[in-house]
């Protein structure tokens, strides 16, 4: 499994809320910030979304917008309107004129992730991913949007399950979307996977997390000198190679502890520690508590 797939699997993304959002005439609403990834898919019509410190962003039919942690924003029929504060809900909402056919329809909502490793998401995404219909229409992403749009307006059995699974696929497609390269992507895995040499290194580490990797060995995989590799890895991933490996090992350990199905010695062996004692010491040093205490504190998540 490639590194991006491994991390997405560990995060266990799920479309927690997905609801129709529609509007007619002139309207504007303002949402407060909330610490959850939010998304909008425009099914018909157009609208504008406004974030503090950014130019107004126009959304039109077929556009996809993904926010890793949702800041305060306004959604309106056109810039310059007074926006009414509203609270997020999990039911369909209609803005503006309540009678007549809506001239704007979107599917909006949020994703949830396994919380013990949710911080990994921040290393994958820029502040905003906007995939315009003009770019995605001829791609698989565009075809997924079309299928999702069809499912949203139909009333077939199993509709909710199909919509949720399609949204989860769209999330992964958005993470690897080629146009994200034009955004200011923070240091992290997504940046590293764009560099052929670093991508080989990341794949090797994820394929054998138990190995006692050295910087020299990893530099050889990247076909670079040791010093050049260490410098590029740090600039691109935001940490040293062995530190990245240690963080990934701890992410796997936290997930295993939350699931509660493996003893400490097995977890230790699977992530490259020689004994349960060595693993416990490393875990306590990084997390500030023993593995057993961490597992008990997160029992409700399993």
From TrEMBL:
It comes from the Bacteria. GO terms for molecular function: DNA-binding transcription factor activity; sequence-specific DNA binding. SMART domains: HTH_ARAC. Signal peptide: none annotated. Keywords: DNA-binding, Transcription, Transcription regulation. Residues 199-297 form the HTH araC/xylS-type domain. Pfam families: Cupin_6, HTH_18. PANTHER family: HTH-TYPE TRANSCRIPTIONAL ACTIVATOR RHAS (PTHR46796:SF13), HTH-TYPE TRANSCRIPTIONAL ACTIVATOR RHAS-RELATED (PTHR46796). This is AraC family transcriptional regulator. It comes from Ciceribacter naphthalenivorans.
């Amino acid at each position: 499994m490639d590194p991006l797939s491994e991390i997405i699997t560990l995060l266990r993304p799920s479309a927690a809320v997905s609801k129709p959002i529609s509007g007619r005439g002139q309207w504007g609403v303002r949402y407060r910030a909330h610490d959850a990834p939010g998304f909008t898919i425009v099914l018909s019509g157009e609208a504008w979304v406004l974030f503090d410190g950014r130019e107004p962003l126009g959304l039109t039919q077929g556009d996809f917008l993904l926010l890793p942690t949702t800041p305060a924003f306004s959604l309106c029929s056109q810039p310059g309107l007074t926006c009414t504060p509203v609270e997020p809900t999990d039911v369909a909402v209609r803005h503006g004129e309540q009678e007549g056919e809506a001239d704007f329809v979107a599917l909006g909502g949020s994703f949830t992730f396994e919380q013990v490793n949710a911080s990994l998401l921040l290393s994958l995404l820029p502040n905003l991913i906007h995939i315009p219909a003009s770019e995605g229409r001829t791609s698989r992403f565009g075809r997924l949007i079309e299928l999702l749009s069809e499912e949203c307006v139909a009333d077939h059995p199993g509709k909710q399950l199909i919509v949720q699974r399609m949204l989860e696929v769209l999330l992964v497609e958005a993470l690897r979307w080629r146009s994200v390269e034009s955004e200011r992507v923070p240091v992290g895995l997504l940046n590293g996977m764009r560099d052929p040499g670093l991508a080989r290194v990341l794949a090797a580490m994820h394929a054998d997390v138990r190995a006692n990797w050295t910087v020299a060995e990893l530099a050889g995989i990247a076909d670079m000198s040791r010093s050049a590799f260490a410098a590029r890895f740090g600039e691109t991933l935001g940490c040293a190679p062995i530190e990245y490996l240690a963080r990934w090992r701890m992410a796997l350990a936290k997930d295993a502890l939350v699931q509660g199905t493996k003893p400490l010695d097995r977890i230790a062996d699977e992530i490259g520690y020689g004994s349960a004692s060595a693993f416990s010491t490393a875990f306590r040093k990084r997390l500030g508590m023993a593995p057993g205490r961490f597992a008990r504190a997160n029992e409700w998540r399993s």
